[in-house]
Specification:
Length: 336
């Protein structure tokens, strides 16, 4: 009784309620079983020989007896079905009465660790779930791309493990990649040939660190581009206006400062996209020539109209995008 007072639940009524649930289930089961069995019709099954031997009046009497028996069965079935429904109603009323006697738990019942749920932070201030979901998505993407990279590397004929190389291969000197380490004279000749291809483009070559080349490309009186190269591979490009300063206070090329004009910031972003598009490691000179051809298409940056909408300005900017194949001009939003 002390537990019932502390908890706030009448345990005796609770036990009787469980028994009431079982009784209700049993009565409901009987109802469905009676409906499943139904009521069988009385049929006379006589063979051909019996039909010949029996007289017609006997057959008529059998039919009447069968009809009377059928009526009795119907009455019996309806009576049993009504009794079963009354039993269900009686058990349901008893269960409702017992549920009212069970009571409800007292609010003073100790909640232990579950009482700390009210101390959880607000979702808006601590978006833990959204962060976990984002981490899960990135994990799946990382696993997918790692699988693709693994399948591509396994297709290569080169063996990257020292254990798989024979003794003769271990003594063989390592050959440096020819596309990464190129003679300086070869790089200078490639840049000079590209400069002679475009008369309206001036290319100046600097080597501030001795080997790496930095190009200062002046395109007419429109813009100046600083192209940072590693051998014949272009690392990054910064585009500024023609009247902007491209040197630092100590007289060196400023390869980090962005342009103060939004139009040339857009061109810088598009140039970075072009560097990712023109990729041919086996022929780096073709990549540099293709990029310079694409950059030269900005000679009419402020004179060309958009090939899609036909306007010269959109949101105060000229068409800053140039197609990689046709070199046609588009606004940044019209190229989609």
């Amino acid at each position: 009784m002390a537990d019932a007072v502390t908890v706030g639940v009448n345990l005796d009524a609770f036990s009787h309620a469980i028994s009431g649930i079982q009784a209700l289930r049993s009565s409901v089961t009987r109802v469905f079983e009676s409906l499943k069995d139904g009521m069988k019709n009385c049929e006379i099954d006589l063979t051909d020989r019996e039909k010949k031997n029996c007289e017609l009046d006997q057959i008529e009497r059998e039919k009447k007896n069968c009809e009377l028996e059928q009526i009795e069965r119907q009455k019996k079935f309806i009576t049993e079905f009504q009794d079963n429904l009354q039993a269900v109603n009686r058990d349901l009323n008893e269960l409702e009465r017992l549920s009212g006697l069970v009571g409800r738990p007292s609010e003073s019942h100790p909640l232990h660790n579950s009482g700390l749920l009210s101390l959880d932070p607000v979702q808006d201030k601590t978006p833990l779930y959204s962060q976990l979901l984002q981490a899960y998505k990135w994990s799946n993407k990382l696993q997918y791309h790692a699988g693709l990279a693994s399948s591509l590397l396994n297709q290569q004929s080169l063996k990257r493990s020292a254990n798989q190389l024979g003794p003769s291969a271990k003594r063989r000197p390592k050959v440096q990649p020819s596309t990464l380490v190129l003679p300086l004279q070869y790089v200078d000749d490639v840049i000079a040939r590209i400069g002679r291809m475009f008369p309206d483009m001036t290319i100046e070559l600097f080597r501030p660190n001795g080997t790496s080349a930095v190009l200062l490309v002046t395109l007419g009186k429109v813009l100046k581009a600083i192209v940072v190269m590693r051998s014949l591979f272009i690392d990054r490009t910064v585009v500024r206006g023609f009247n902007e300063n491209v040197y630092t206070k100590d007289g060196k090329l400023d390869i980090w400062t962005k342009s103060q004009y939004q139009v040339f910031q857009k061109v810088t972003d598009h140039a970075t996209t072009a560097l990712l598009h023109y990729q041919l490691p086996q022929m780096p000179d073709v990549v540099v020539r293709s990029f310079m051809t694409w950059l030269r298409s900005y000679i009419k940056l402020f004179q060309s109209s958009c090939q899609r909408c036909g306007h010269f300005l959109q949101d105060g900017l000229p068409p800053t995008w140039r197609d990689f194949r046709t070199l046609e001009a588009f606004h940044d939003t019209c190229r989609m």
